[in-house]
């Protein structure tokens, strides 16, 4: 199973005109079936707090800074900081995630599937039991 990892996207342009950042075809680890973005999350709120059975995601901070704690099925915890739109975080299935938004941050997510509530694992204990073991990501 692939681990969560950062992907870099090419950008073209200049400081005077701005930049076009491109994510297409062979750069992406999956075919995109849904795109959504999240904005206005208070810095005091921890978002995410779930995993997915099958869904793959590519998460990009299109504005501001977003910090993610991702726990993999082997119970390893990885911390990522997204602070530039030329970089995205690939999150494979069965990875628990917690997301912290900096002031004014906007998160865009490219997803491998359309929304399906049955794909969500919203309780950490259920996640821990599914992947084997116990514990709490907040410890």
Automatic annotation (TrEMBL):
Q: Which Pfam families match?
A: FdtA
What is the scientific name of the source organism?
Hymenobacter psychrophilus
Among SUPFAM superfamilies, the record links this protein to:
RmlC-like cupins
What InterPro entries does the annotation carry? QdtA_cupin_dom, RmlC-like_jellyroll, RmlC_Cupin_sf
Q: What is this protein called?
A: WxcM-like, C-terminal
Please list the residue ranges annotated as the Sugar 3,4-ketoisomerase QdtA cupin domain: 6-131
């Amino acid at each position: 199973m692939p681990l969560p990892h950062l992907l870099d996207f090419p950008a073209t342009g200049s400081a005077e005109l701005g930049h076009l950042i491109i994510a297409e075809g062979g750069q992406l680890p999956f075919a995109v079936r849904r795109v959504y973005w999240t904005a206005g999350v208070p810095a005091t709120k921890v978002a995410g707090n779930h995993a997915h059975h099958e869904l793959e995601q590519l998460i990009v901070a299109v504005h501001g800074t977003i910090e993610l704690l991702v726990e993999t099925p082997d119970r390893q915890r990885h911390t990522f900081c997204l602070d530039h739109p030329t970089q995205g975080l690939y999150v494979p299935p069965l990875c628990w995630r917690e997301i912290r938004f900096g002031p004014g941050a906007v998160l865009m997510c490219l997803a491998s599937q359309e929304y399906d509530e049955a794909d969500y694992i919203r309780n950490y204990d259920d996640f821990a039991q599914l992947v084997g073991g116990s514990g709490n990501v907040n410890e």
